[in-house]
Amino acid sequence: MTETEAVAVPAHWRRNLAIFLSGQTVSLFGSMIVQYVVMWYVTLETQSGVAVALYAVAAFAPQGIVSIFGGVLADRMNRKVLAMSADIGIAASTLVLALLMMNGITDLWIILLAVGVRSLGAGVQTPTVQAMIPQLVPGDQLMRVNGMFQTIQSVMSLLAPAVAGAIYAFAGIVPVFFLDVVTAVIGVVLLGLVTVPTLARATESTTTYGQDLVEGMRYITTHPIVRWLLGVFAILFLLTVAPSFLTPLMVARSFGDEKWMLAVLEIVFSVGMMLGGVLVSTILAKKNPMRLILVATYGFALFTILQGLAPNLWVFYGFMFAFGLMVPPFSSPFMTLFQRTVEPAKHGRVFSYVGIVMALATPIGMVAFGPLADVISVQLLLIIAGTATMIVITVAILLPSGRAALAAARESEPDEDSGDTADQVPSDTVPSDTVPSGTVPSGTELRAPSGSDYPEPEAPATLR
Fold first, then answer.
1. Cα 270 vs. chain centroid, distance in angstroms?
2. Measured CA distances, 255 to 23, 131, 450 (Å)
3. Domain 11-198+207-444 architecture
């Protein structure tokens, strides 16, 4: 890697990271509450697959479109300033919409507009924060810190449904928007206290946005691990995350439309995800990342099928818990491989494509699954989606490109006996100037059912 592109992690990186994670956790908590309540509102008020599909489109499509430029901006501008500006914009838009609703404008399209505006901001904020984190954390702490942050997110996911249910039941939807504004402001203030090293690329740029986007795509297509992982990511969001948006609708139609049922649905998922995060940060921290990704991928498919076969609500909750357990063993190794493989100066551009896939695959899938849910049962859709996932992933592994990616990932696996080789990669897989990177914030978490995280559209990455 060139001297101008080297990332000098601050000596006080632990304190720096603690401040950053604290701010992101508070902000994520507010966002989770908003998304739970909005998803429940749409589900319970309409009990329509089409309405839920419209919510998914509003939550993800704007982010996917804006992410095309958000990642490039993250590589060309000061990432800290850009992330703070995006958060402020989201908070301001949310406040305006909350005031409109207070004056009696509470139609469904207003709710969807609020979700869409927030998604636009997330299209800039998410890849920016993802690209900024590797500047804060030493490379040899990747898997452990990813698992720790996944656990933090899981704890927040455990608390958010209970808080969301209480606010929604006693105060309605409007106060939720005000709460999100407050948490966003706290997140921005704490982010302002974080020291973020500036890459030379952020101050010296000689290429156009279009050239940067083309360069990012070229980088993805010429690196087998990155290309294959992005394909697997797209498959999961199309075939498991998209239909998971319909699980609250399944509960409302088949088991009851009481708010506590939807809250428990999210809580059991979050408990599973929290336990999975603990496992990744401890006993799974040194395991082969690609192997963890494959096990988790098949786990997603299996438990999606079993959710469709669940005979009663409590068995369904059990399968949802198991589904949540699979999230950290997928998302943490996924981001670790990406961050190890991609050179820092290109993080923004490459992560923007991750955001694009996440944001566009889900609404594309819901355009099909949503209307179908008004024709056939959600249970049957889950069985079909899980079976399709197993078949497609198996084919992807057996293809030459899949075998090449798996072989490259094995070669890039660090020697467990050497502490300073944690982030080495084979010369035929990534450029010799590659340097390790850090963890991934809320935006990368792969999640869906209520659109709560991960990645929530503004938060990256929980699969569900």
1. 14
2. 38, 42, 17
3. Up-down Bundle (1.20)
